[in-house]
Structures are given as C-alpha cells and as structure tokens.
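pasting for the record
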Amino acid sequence: IGLALDARGLVNIQYVIYPDESGRSEVYVLEVNPRASRTVPFLSKVTGVPMVRLAVNIMLGRTLEEQGFSGGLWPEQDLVAVKAPVFSMSKLTGVDTYLGPEMKSTGEVMGVDKAFEAALAKALMSSDLALPQGGGVLLSIADRQKPEALTIIRELAGSGFSLYATEGTAEMIRALGVPVSMVTKRLSEGHPNVLDVIHDGSVACVINTPEGRQTATMRDGFHIRRAAAERRIPCFTSIDTARAAVQAFLLGEQRYGVGPLREYLTGRRD
C-alpha cells in the first residue's frame, strides 16, 4: 500500500480482521493515512527503533540503509506489549461511559511482560481497570451475550467474588448453581437496587452490556455506568474486555515481573 501511494515516512493503516460464515478470517483495510499516530511512540518503546527520527530523515531524502536499518519485518521479540486506554469519565458529569466507535480515551498506558496475561494485568492496573482482590461484582448482561458470560461468571465465583446481578442475569446465574444476590435495576421499585450496592461499597467492579444504543436497557444501564464512574471502580461494557480482565486477574497478576524497559528489550538483567 505504501509503495502504491508512493508514501515517504510514516503511514497509519487501520485494519479489521473479521471471521466470515465459514470460519475463515477476512482482512479489511478501513483507512490509510500518510501520517503518524499515537501507536508510533508505543511501538518505538517496545522495539527500541526511533521511528519518528527515521521517518523524518526519510522525508528529507535519506534511506533506511544510510541510517543503519534494513527493510522487512522487525525480528519477533520475547515479550508482549499491551496498550490500554485511560478515561476521564468521573470528571465529566452526565457523560455515559458506554464505549462505541467514538474516541473517548484521554490517554494510554503500556504494560510489557513475557506473557499476554501478565502484560495485560500491568496495563489494567495502570489504567485503574484491574479487578480488585475479592469484593463484589455487579453483572447486568444483555440477553444475546448471556451465553458468552457463563465462563466469566464461573471464574469470578470460583475466585471468591460475591456476585450481584440484575433480574434476568441473576436468574441465569442461579440456573448455574452459583450463589448470587439479585438487585433491581429499576430505581423506583425498591431496595437494594443497582445504585445502592455501588454506593455502599458492596461491589468493586461492574460488568454491564446493554442490548443496543436506543433501548430501555441502555437507559437503565446509564445509571449503573455513571455510578461506577463516580465511584472510580472498573466498569466493563464489553464481554471480550471483561473476559480479558478476568484472565489477567487469574493468570497475570500472580506471575508478572517488574524491571526496567531495557531489560525486556535486551532479554537480560543488568
């Protein structure tokens, strides 16, 4: 793509990898921009390659070879780097924390380690999205995503978390034989409701996946997500992200290492 565009310097390409009905993955190019992106400093730190300096010199007429580099892919390293967004939802009164295609992050953090779960655990801790040790988790899962949430629910219960759930989700959890406390999401229909268990500290994490952008569950969920933001507790609106966070808690936090970035890049300790 870069050669076809006759681009010089940095090019930012957005891809989507999407499985088709046969199970094969199709790769789509969403956009190509002849510019840098916020990923460039992230990749420069992980690889040790000064990408901005190289790109500027290329735009000024110097080749990669003249700068001591060759073409091709950078050699694979024995490390994993995870970039996690940082949000300022608690400072923005009345803003829904539900995440869609719009850019809502105000910064990013990086977790680096030898394994994905360990690197993810570091990134989530740095962005205040890590699961707490013990405590309660409030679940309000959309009907279409309930089957995907079964594994997460079992793992949370098996790790000692107390489960709280709204009406439909609580019914599903009870059917699994897992203890759960039901709380209503309808704020006018008694106590305890979803806001009560967030404000009184009963729960230290929220998993809330609404049915869609214009539904009653979206409006109900707004109060849950807003309360979680104001209490500064992790709130996940995607099953995939929640699953990754649970795996990071179960596998990553027990085995991550701590060291200067140069040690990860060189693979040795000074």
